[in-house]
Amino acid sequence: MITFSRRTGWPAEPNRLSEAWAHCRAVRPDAVDLTLSNPTAAGLPYPEEAILRALSDPRALLYEPASRGLPSALEALARDLTRAADAVSPDHLVLTASTSEAYGWLFKLLTERGDEILVPRPSYPLLEFLADLEETRLVSYPLRYDGRWQIDFDALEAACTERTRAVVVIHPNNPTGNFLDLDDARRLGEICARRGLAILSDEVFLEYGLGSANELRAGTLAALDLPTLTVSLGGLSKCAALPQIKVGWMRVGGPSALAREALSRLEVIADTYLSVNTPAQWGLETLLATRSAARDAIRARIESNDAALRSALVPQSPISALHTEGGWSTVLRLPRVRSEEAWTLGLLEEEAIQVHPGYFFDFDQEAFWVVSLLPRPEQFVPAIERALRYVERHA
Ligand SMILES: Cc1ncc(COP(=O)(O)O)c(C=O)c1O
Q: The domain 48-289: what is its CATH number?
């Protein structure tokens, strides 16, 4: 008799919203998906020939395993990440197949079974399965909204126990879009250093700030010389809009003895998997050098879709858009005359439009919708107008 591991015994019942969306798409050719997160399905201008050429480098015919990544790929990445006041060394970088894989490796690096990692709430539901697989416990700390989303540092400290090993920050957060400012980053560094915690800073959306650049934003946390181990995560999936290439990375910063120890252990983890494929590593220099076309098109699109959404809201509307600073989505607050589930299912049934309910991202109150700003404007603008009118009709 085969027994399966307890940690993979996830509930298998189907989700009501995804069933309703599958049915809607089958019967409504005009269905619109305002949860779109796949940039390759968003009609973006990719440098297609350059991408395909980059992936067919003849050097990829040889297998020369290198645990943190091929030297040429690490050097290309270090050049791409380097800024005027921040020279990045390839020695501080580790390539992975994705940011998700990087999280898994960091949980292996930092936790024993039952140890805890603090994660923001609300946030993208990516980490639960990764934590289950490592037998790590996720404990949430709240973000508060008072015209702007921010970390509640008192609640964060209250959530720490003797089993806490690290704090995840998502900078900017998905879906709330808030960046850490420099004061937040230093305060977090001081708390984590005092308690012996690492900072894991998920920066996949770092280049997607909305509005004029705010010089208070902290930039990449691994560059700040915070007094604790600080790992910044990034990847091609968002910064080059190429999730299918499967290249992510970690940049390790903080006190040098700690960073060195972390890097040498991560090198062994990486060597155990050797998961980053060779064609993508030889192509990385070109993929990074040509990424601005798709990234800038996304920036322009999220600005214009967000502006269209806000201008479609009338002042006395029962629905409002929360302040956002970046990322690929906007959060809408709905009247609490119905549950989120009822609002979301009703929108699917009446208007054939899919949005995410707030509970998908673990908002601690109802009722919110999260809409993706990635769809083409010719789809997004009429759909968001219909969604707003739908709420007004039923409020
Ligand atoms: C905040 C955040 N981090 C990481 C990821 C996953 O990125 P990757 O494709 O590199 O695993 C996502 C996916 O949407 C995300 O929203």
A: 3.40.640.10
The ligand 1 atom nearest the CA atom of 37: 14
Looking at ligand 1, which atom is closest to the CA of residue 123? 1
**What percentage of the chain carries pLDDT values higher than 90?**
95
Tens of pLDDT, residue by residue over 230-279, are 999 999 999 999 999 999 999 999 999 999 999 999 999 999 999 999 99
Give the pLDDT confidence of 269-309 residue by residue, as tens digits.
Answer: 999 999 999 999 999 999 999 999 999 999 999 999 999 99
DSSP H helical ranges for the chain: 16-27, 48-54, 71-81, 99-110, 127-134, 153-159, 182-195, 236-239, 256-273, 278-289, 292-312, 340-351, 377-394
State how far the alpha carbon of 360 is from the alpha carbons of 36, 154, 318, 363, in Å: 14, 25, 22, 8
Q: At 244, is the secondary structure helix, strand, or coil? A: helix
Say if CB 322 and CB 145 are below 8 A apart: yes
Ligand 1 mutation target, pool 127, 204, 360, most atoms within 8 A of CB? 204
| Domain spans in the chain, listed from the N-terminal domain onward | 14-45+292-394, 48-289
Which among 36, 101, 103, 126 is the best mutation to test ligand 1's pocket, defined by most ligand atoms within 8 Å of the CB?
A: 126
Rounded to two decimals, what is the model's pTM? 0.97
**Which residue do the tokens 């004061």 mark?**
183
CATH superfamily to which 14-45+292-394 belongs: Aspartate Aminotransferase, domain 1 (3.90.1150.10)
Give the bridge partners for 251, in sequence order: 93, 232
β-bridge mates for residue 168, sequence order: 200
d(CA 329, CA 373): 5
Would the CATH topology of 14-45+292-394 be identical to that of 48-289?
Answer: no
DSSP-based three-state secondary structure for 33: strand
Residues contacting ligand 1 via CB (< 6 Å)? 37, 98-100, 124, 126, 170, 174, 202, 204, 235, 237, 243, 248
Q: CA nearest 81: which of 227, 246, 240?
A: 240
- Which three-class secondary structure state does DSSP give residue 360? helix
User: Would you give the DSSP letter of residue 256?
Assistant: H
Which helix (H) or strand (E) segment is 302 a member of?
helix 292-312
Locate 340 and state its tokens: 């989120």
